[in-house]
Amino acid sequence: MQTKELNTDFEVRSLDAMCFNESELTHPWWFNFKYLFAGIIFGIILIKAQVISWFRIQEMFRLQSFHMYGVIGSAVVTGVSSIFIIKKFKIKTIYGEEIKFYPKEFSKGQIYGGLLFGFGWALTGACPGPLFAQIGTGATVIAVTLLSAIAGTWVYGWLSKKLPH
Amino acid sequence: MKMLEWLSQPWPWYVAGPLIGLTVPLLLILGNKTFGISSSMRHLCAICLPSKISYFQYDWKKEIWNLFFVVGIILGGVISSTLLADPNPVQINPALAKELHQYGISNYNQLIPVDIFNWQTLLSVKGFIMMIGGGFLVGFGTRYAGGCTSGHSITGLSNLQWASFVATVCFMIGGFIAANLFLPFILKM
Q1: pLDDT for A19-58, tens place per residue?
Q2: pLDDT at position A18
């Protein structure tokens, strides 16, 4: 039986065997500060749009408000248009590198994991981004929720080879 | 001052949604980075407790930008709750308010219900299930699914990925089941 290392993780590029996205550029660590600023702006948007609100999430899962559907829907429309424009005009990064996209292999993990995450989302009223944002707003107890989420991540990593994918 | 007051109001979906969507091209253009947040927790595991687990054996130094991004989100939370704080309680659907009232949730001053999410309730059965159990499912589920709302529902859908569509549908199904069928029992505890 051939064992094939399947990369099911959408967000981690360095595990992708086919990945030739590795930048030839090596930047000093402080170049990462631009992502810190991007994160600050993103955090402010999440909070001012109340996307991190437990109440908004409950309304979403009870079909009592259009707000969250509007946010996610218009974000996707913007994202689709942006990626279309990047591909069409072959827009490069600010360092002149080609922008690469990766297809995502389907696995059953998206079903099982998706359902489990949905459960957690309804209980905590937060996906991972909002957990960080909620802590920033002074809800210190959410740090425990975040630690628990990190523990969940670790347990997944520990069991990943035994779980159906 | 006018500007700050204006920014302090809750932002409508048609402002926030496109701004969130623009995060995808922003990160790509800044340095070929794929927008996604839950993987930050994987990097933290890989850094702090890899424990010879192959899932955590990778060059996390290349992904360190992701941790800068989430620290930024925390700082964004600090800024929003201080400089851009909205003094008004969260406006919620009357039907939800009525339902939550039965469970003793009546404080809408924060974005999260402080009646449930606080240090005192953390070790009650209800608080434990919601904060610790819920958090565990968020971490475990997002990694099992290979992404969260940002990685799949925003980035993946933006790149028209079938797998991300399936994941998003499953997030919603899980959420609907939990919020409507399980949460009422948990909140009654």
Answers
A1: 334 455 778 889 999 999 999 999 999 999 999 999 999 9
A2: 36
State the Cα–Cα distance between residues B171 and B166, nearest whole angstrom.
9
Same domain? B56 vs B122: no
Give the distance from residue B104's alpha carbon to the nearest chain A alpha carbon, in angstroms. Answer: 14
| Of residues B42, B55, B74, B129, the one with CA closest to residue A158 | B55
Q: Among B68, B85, B102, which residue terminates a domain?
A: B85
A111: distance to nearest CA of chain B, Å? 6
The answer to whether B187 contacts chain A (CB < 8 Å) is: no
B49 and B123 assigned to the same domain: no
Q: Is B9 within the bounds of a domain?
A: yes
Among A99, A109, A94, A98, smallest CA distance to A157 is for A109
* CB contact residues (below 8 A), chain B span 1-60, against chain A: 7-8, 10-34, 36-42, 44-45, 49, 51, 53-56, 58-59
| Cα–Cα dist A143/B109, whole Å | 20
| Residue B108 β-bridge partners | none
Tell me the angle at which helices B162-177 and A54-61 cross, rounded to the nearest 10 degrees.
100
Same structural domain, B73 and B141: no
